[in-house]
Amino acid sequence: MNPMLRLQRLLVATDLSEPARYAADRAAALANEVEATLELLYVVPKPPIDRLRWLVSETPSKLQQRVLDEAREAVRQLAAHLLRAYGVSPGVHVVSGPLLQELVTQIKGISPDLTIVGARGASTVRHLLLGTTADRLLGTARRPMLVVKQPPRERYRSVLVPVDFSPASIAAVRAARTVAPGASIKLLHAFEMPFEGMLQYASVDEEQIHCYRIAARQEALQKLRRLSEEASLPAGLALPPLVLHGNPSVHILEQERAAGCDLIVMGKHGQDKLEELLLGSTTKHILAQSQCDVLVSL
User: Which of 15, 74, 131, 199 has its Cβ near the most Cβ atoms within 10 Å?
Assistant: First the structure.
């Protein structure tokens, strides 16, 4: 595994809606910051074109060409905006077909180091990252994906990286350093005691259970410090690590608000082997419920 994620080519998938503009702006700002190339991708979904055939008198081939031409012009205008605002000249890719299939095909062909998308949009793509399409798209991903939820007013300044000490944890920390260079990084481990309910059911003394929690917390803190060292986190950027007992999703969202984070970095896979095939439930929940941007690393 490479010690650091390198960003040389970025891809932003857009549906040309206003919320999707946030993703394009963030992608261009990041491309400028890390000196990467940028590609714009717009997929014209096939079903809407099919429905339009009932409303106009044009032949299917002429209608599809007109829709594609108008889409290309709109994407070119977006590219021109990004050049003016960020000094980045993106490549333009406009295709039509089944949305998910074309997204996967185009991402594979372009092979970006990072794919950037908006969390919601004005068309079929509005469910891109927050529904079943998102799960399936992320399930096929071989590179990190950044979900943009807020207008990019400035560089990322405060990053929260929840870790579970699986192999994905070190990748998440390294991805955070690459996508948010110069930002402060806080490592968080939230844990629930294995078989705690059974211990209580077995009438194990609450004080003894509390001692188990303290021991688990101390062990986790040591692991967080080792992880920070392994990821070569600069002392000036690494905030004191945090270990909390309880539901990880709840604590992640609480810390997002408490620390004013503008980016959360989640590993795609967790400790559970089943999650090697599916997007983890915690990651799904954070994608849906967080207010700030979310980077899903691999």
Answer: 15
